[in-house]
């Protein structure tokens, strides 16, 4: 199985909860109509938190983007999504903000995603671009974006969701440095998995087993984990906000909540900004 299959997995697990607009939901349904759900269904049966994890991280990314839009509208006028996979996020964002533009990057399913966006979200497609690009090569990322009309002189919101599990830490740090380096007001919303031994033991073992099952299926030894503050420091960044699934579940009003305590899950969604220089 290729790494691109993990995108089918997340979309099947999150379903309609992956999207926030009619255009996004149309894209999700169209993708799911052509996707084999078997792997996702068997993982969801074995790992009861798999589906809530997928739904809650989608909700949290949307929550952070919406908050940025309220506080600093200019920052979300350009949205870049490396490792976008089948995610409806950029389509949702363009449907919500009529002046925004978005760029997606991935290794796989580029032409198929483009065809689906053109079919399901025709009105926003002129403001949407996707390119094949290895997100672990930061220079290639900025070159691909520049070639597709991205304006590096303007602030940009970057969303790295479900990506850092698959990229070696040094490359992840370079990518985030590059993202925040382009403009002082740019932001990175990044989803990370904490090291399994940093949370409650039983929950950590569940997360480890789930990630190990995914790694095995795509022919990897393991998925990468990060401690958010250390990651931010390594990137010359500061943590502006951080959300765990228990807090997201409470804010979202889930009843019953899928997670009650932050230490029940390794999943964190982190909003990074450039570190403030005192020089
Ligand atoms: C778990 S999926 C997440 C998809 C989407 N971001 C979401 O959360 O719904 C991981 C995605 O990252 C892509 N990916 C993995 N390694 C990559 C790399 N080095 N460069 C670009 N994309 C990559 C995969 O192809 C896949 O689409």
Describe the overall structure.
By secondary structure, the chain is an alpha/beta fold. The chain has one domain (5-274): 3-Layer(aba) Sandwich (Rossmann fold). It is built from eleven helices and seven strands. Helix 1 crosses helix 4 and helix 2 (22-33) packs across helix 6 (110-120). The longest helix is centred in the N-terminal third of the chain and has 22 residues, at 50-71. It is globular. The site of S-adenosylmethionine (SAM) has 22 residues, from helix 1 and strand 2. Residues 3-4, 6-7, 10, 82-85, 87, 105-108, 134-136, 161-163, 166-167 line the site of S-adenosylmethionine.
- Described by the principal axes of the CA atoms, the overall outline is globular
How many domains? The number is 1
Q: What is the CATH class name?
A: Alpha Beta
Average pLDDT = 96
- Assign the CATH topology: Rossmann fold
CATH architect. name = 3-Layer(aba) Sandwich
Helix count from the secondary structure assignment: 11
Taken as a percent bin, the fraction of beta residues is 15-25%
